[in-house]
Specification:
50% of the residues lie in helices and 14% in strands. The chain has 117 residues and is of the alpha+beta class. The protein has one domain: Autophagy protein 6/Beclin 1 (Actin-binding Protein, T-fimbrin, domain 1, Orthogonal Bundle). The protein has a 3-stranded antiparallel β-sheet, covered by helices on one side. A hairpin with a 2-residue loop joins strand 2 and strand 3. The longest helix is centred in the first third of the chain and has 29 residues. The chain is globular and about 50 Å long.
Length: 117
Amino acid sequence: MNEKERKEEIIKINTAVGHVMHIIGLVAYYLGIKLPFLVINKGHKSFAKGSIHGIPISKRPLYLTDKNSEDFTIGMAMLNYNIAYLCHTQGVDIPYSKVSHTLQNLFLCCQAANLGR
C-alpha cells in the first residue's frame, strides 16, 4: 500500500469512528444511560477518558495517526467497552470474544427487543 492509499485508509477509519461516537452518544442520551468512559468527539482531536475501579485512565485518542496506533487501540477498547455496557443495559449479551465487533454490537444494541424499557 502506498502512502496515499494508507492516508486514505486512516481517513476512512477516523470518519467511521467519529460516526460511531456520535451514534453512541445519541443512544446513551436517549436511554438516559451514563457510560463508563467519557467520549469527547472533537474531530481529529477526539478522545476517551475515565477510570476503572477508581484508577484514572489518561486520555486516549479516538483518531488514528501514523504515530499513535497503540494509544488508539486503547481508546477503541474504551469505546467498545461503552458499547458492550450499552448492550448489557438493554439485555443484549455480548461474549468477550466479540467485544471488539464495534458496529455489529452497536447494531445488536439498537435492535434489542426491549430497547429503552
